[in-house]
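Check these lines:
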Amino acid sequence: MFEHVDPFIGTDVTALPPQSGLAASWWWPKPQVGNTHPGATYPFGMVSACAYSGAYPTGYGRYDLSTEGLPPVLHDGLVASGFTHFQQSGTGAIRKYYNYFRVTPMLRPLDDLGQVWDIVEEHAEPGYYAATLSSGIRAEITVGPKSAVHRYTFPAHHDARVVIDFSLGGLDIPYGRTVPLRAHLASVGPGCAEGEVVVEGAPLAVRVECDAPQWRQMLWYDRRLMPGGTRLDFDRIRPTTLRPFGLMWAGPAEPGQVVELRFGFSLRGAEQARESLHRECGPGPGVPSFEVRRAATQDAWREQLAKVAVDTPSSDKQTVLATALYHSLVKPCLAPDESPFWPTPGPFAFDLSTMWDIYRTHLPLMTALVPDKAVELANALLQIAEEEGNLPIGYRMARGADRFSRQGSALAHTFLADVCALGLPGVDWDWALVHMHDDLRRTYGEEYLQRGITHPVSHTLDLAFGYWCTAIVAARAGDLTLVDQFSALAGGWTTAFDPATGLLVDSTWYEGGKWNYSFRLLHDMASRVALAGGDEAFVGMLDRFFGFGAPPVRQPGLLPGLDELAAGYALDRFEGLNNEPDMEAPWAYMYAGRPDRTAQVVHDVVQQQFGTGRGGLPGNDDSGGLSSWYVWASLGLFPVAGQNLFLLNAPAWREARLDLGGAALTVETTGFVEPEAGGPPQHVQSVHLDGEPLDRPYLTGGELHRGGRLLIGLGPEPSGWGTTHRPPSSPAPPTRPGRAGHLTPLERTTP
């Protein structure tokens, strides 16, 4: 899979073929751009590095701030003023844009720092990024978990230079810049410097080593050199007093001369940054390490990307899948022993930038493919709760700053419930139960306890399910009193719905509307379907939502007006994979005995809304939220997050293999026909698990993680498979092992 990854997918405005059939009726309100970047990354690593233009939202690329429709252009072409570190992946307006320690290779005076050069050639693959600037300088970058190595190849010049700007951060858009609060920088020896910038409360330290022994090493301030100076200290910086400052190496360059820069980073001081650098890149300076670090990082990527393999004759489809898997393994940033906010060692994580987007698909994929990393993240979340008082909804490289809870509540509970139900070792579940319980009583949770409902009403669903998930942990800890209490509170989801309409009650909404939030997969879907009036009525509502029989719609263009947006939202339509609130909805049909409808919707999304090229994503990738959806759906599997359950559907591959923490699951097919965009879907006719017939349309988490052979018979028409035995639906949370290892004391299937 490594060779098929294209890190440029999602970096440009959406450029998919025109949608046809059912997909043409879906309306896309969110920005039509993936917001990814092609920079060098390490699987779940702390560091990324990429060309910097100041564009929204990663610092790479051409576009200005956008929240709806096509993004406005900031730069006519691809340009760079240097190369920065720490980028988001696929997010939107989260107000933490990093891009620290810009490195600019120059052949011009320091006064010209900040000008942009055209990027005339680019190449990217997992763990490696290269660009040639119109100045004639070629840049190559690779990274480790906590390090980065740059290599610059210069043309002949009498005074070439590499300039590192310690003062720059954020984006070149209104209100997008980041101003360091404090900064310290010192030359500590030939080719060596150390420093720290405190940005939005996070003290980010760096050790820099330069392999250019014949060049001059100098500090600079306000674009003026400080010959002989060895230290800069800024104890208080305001936006009005900030002047650029940093470090520079300069000297004559021979044709093709190579200069290597090595960075070690830490949130716990320069000494730890130095230790990370030397551990990951060897001692220096003077010992070239670019190729060694690149090889080690690419080996790590090959190992992770090999966890999924498929049989397909289409190199384009292979590229789409490989890149989706790659984007699913970039975030969150796992940075063990790096918390700057508490002194204890142990797991730490940041860039859980859009938990409301990743909890449904991305975190279950992480749990399935790299369960040890899932345990590390679980412990990091619990440590954050221990020290800061909240299980985070979004968490960036800044303590508690800019917490955003409007879009969701209790989302970490869903992830923790899956880890607990699988019995993964390494988590103290008594400790977890304390924090999960406390967290449910905060913010919107207090109103839920007092009134039985809270607004935005989607939080009522979050909190009810949070209690259901926490009861799983309470059962694991043997606290049956809490299980009983949480069981009653888990039933509070019904207050969020209007029995007269079968939809959620009127409320305020974030990134969607009543219909988008009304079809999430609850723990008691049997009651949800009954509340809507039964199978036929529920399917009718879903058919309306997905646009069966509806005419094609017009998508928002550049800077859409309020009237255009209002008309689009008034459609009450599925938003495709342009947005996440309704990404579970295609599978809701299965709880009403209509897997054929799921097959149709999923087929159209998989075959029409993901493609190759820079414009190959239908919307913001949101830290892998969209990409992981594609990985699951194309495999014919879909996780019901928090319920340790995987729904089955027709796969998009003749055969696939998954490495699930050491156990292999193969997904094989009979009757397979290569799917085509705009063509008909295939339907499941039969399923066998390790040779035994499976008449239910799901696997338990235990079955999935044990691996084995899943054989799916396919055909062109719907069959009776999956129409009688529905996925589990339980008003009470799991307390003991049930069928096939699925924890479910009151499992209820409806004919």
The radius of gyration is 26 Å. Residues 737-751 have pLDDT under 50 and may be disordered. The longest strand covers residues 202-211.
